[in-house]
Amino acid sequence: MPMTRIDFAFGAADRLRAACQAARKRYQAGQRLVVYCADGARLAAFDRMLWAFDDVSFVPHVLATDPLAADTPVILTAAAPQPAAAGDEPWLLNLDDDCPPGYDGFARVLEIVSDDPADRQAARQRWRVYQAAGHTPHSHDLAGRTA
């Protein structure tokens, strides 16, 4: 299995809103997405925002424990995310402050980072953990600034 690609998107005005936009993009591309966050309150806030952030498009999503999870494009989980069966390669979107457990079972990990100092600090720590594990994270600037 090839090494997991890890993408950090820095400069999001609102981390959860940017995550909703990423989930919509994956769904519209016909691809599955697993969204991980051990913080149940943050995951619930993302769930609520996913229902309401866009008036014209709907992103089908359920919790990983839902009976429809296997047939739903976007899965939300506070437990260790499970890579899918062969042939079905969902991306993993991390909304947690720490690296998601088992992330290297996914083809791709998305990290969205706001300009909030605590969020940026947690992201820097995740970046170092990924590097220490042998990954080369990729950085993208959502605000369009040059580094």
From TrEMBL:
Coiled coil: none annotated. Keywords: Nucleotidyltransferase, Transferase. It is an enzyme of class 2 (transferase). It comes from the Bacteria. GO terms for biological process: DNA replication; positive regulation of DNA-templated DNA replication initiation. Pfam families: DNA_pol3_chi. GO terms for molecular function: DNA binding; DNA-directed DNA polymerase activity. This is DNA polymerase III, chi subunit. Its EC number is 2.7.7.7.
